[in-house]
């Protein structure tokens, strides 16, 4: 007898939120890489050879992609955290007890997973906070754009915020790629179940049997 393929409404919602986080992250990452290799500020005596080069879109379109991709990722991530806050607190406490327990040694795989998750969380937070800074304190700034060097200097200078945003973003991309690699089997399984659950049960069960779900 073929198994029925079901997915609860909660899991559907979690999957959709993860897709928005992933999609927004991809858009923000690609546009961020564009700005990393094609910075603004003119040709600058040969220091910016990528100035004026169009790669798929114009600079203004890449700015919109980066902005709205980042906003979508942050919004979905915040909703995801709020929904799972109790589980996050419980898991964090359990993990801390396990790490500092004298009764048993923590496996290296667990440590690696924790380090990757920590890098994802910290780099995401720094990227998001610095991105929000630039959203509300854009360059070109004050007095209708007449004061291009305007710097609100909130906590740090604009240059420092730019460095934080850049390198936190680079770290976030690398750590997220490692996170996806670690959990790839689970991601593939849940994604398959999500789409199979949308099919009529007879067709879904046959497809699930073929792929071994």
Written description of the protein model:
This protein has 213 residues and is an all-alpha fold. The protein has 2 domains: 77 residues; 92 residues, no CATH class. It has 7 helices and no strands. Helix 1 runs antiparallel to helix 2, helix 1 crosses helix 5 and helix 4 packs antiparallel against helix 5. The longest helix is centred in the N-terminal third of the chain and has 29 residues. The radius of gyration is 22 Å and the shape is globular. About 2% of the residues have low confidence.
Query: Helix/strand/pairing class, anyone?
Result: mainly alpha
Instruction: Let me know the largest β-sheet.
Output: none
What's the overall geometry? globular
Helix content: 55-70%
Write a brief caption for the model.
With 213 residues, the chain is mainly alpha-helical.
Salient structural properties:
213 residues; mainly alpha; 2 domains; 7 helices
Secondary structure elements and their pairing?
Layout: H1 9-37, H2 59-83, H3 85-99, H4 108-136, H5 158-182, H6 184-196, H7 201-211
Helix pairs in contact: 1-2, 1-5, 4-5
């Amino acid at each position: 007898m073929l198994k029925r393929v079901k997915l609860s409404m909660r899991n559907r919602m979690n999957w959709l939120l993860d897709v928005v986080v992933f999609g927004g992250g991809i858009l923000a990452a690609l546009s961020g890489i564009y700005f990393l290799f094609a910075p603004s500020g003119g040709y600058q005596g040969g220091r910016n050879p990528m100035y004026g080069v169009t790669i798929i879109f114009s600079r203004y379109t890449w700015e919109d992609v980066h902005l709205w991709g980042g906003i979508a990722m942050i919004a979905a991530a915040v909703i995801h955290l709020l929904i799972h806050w109790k589980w996050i607190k419980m898991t964090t406490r359990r993990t801390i007890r396990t790490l500092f327990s004298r009764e048993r040694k923590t496996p290296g795989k667990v440590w690696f997973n924790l380090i990757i998750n920590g890098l994802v969380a910290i780099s995401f937070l720094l990227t998001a906070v610095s991105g929000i800074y630039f959203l509300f304190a854009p360059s070109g700034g004050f007095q209708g754009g007449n004061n291009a060097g305007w710097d609100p200097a909130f906590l740090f200078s604009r240059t420092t915020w730019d460095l934080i945003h850049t390198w936190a973003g680079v770290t976030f991309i690398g750590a997220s790629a490692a996170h996806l690699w670690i959990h790839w089997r689970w991601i593939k399984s849940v994604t398959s179940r999500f789409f199979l659950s949308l099919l009529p049960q007879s067709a879904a069960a046959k497809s699930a049997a073929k792929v071994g779900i």
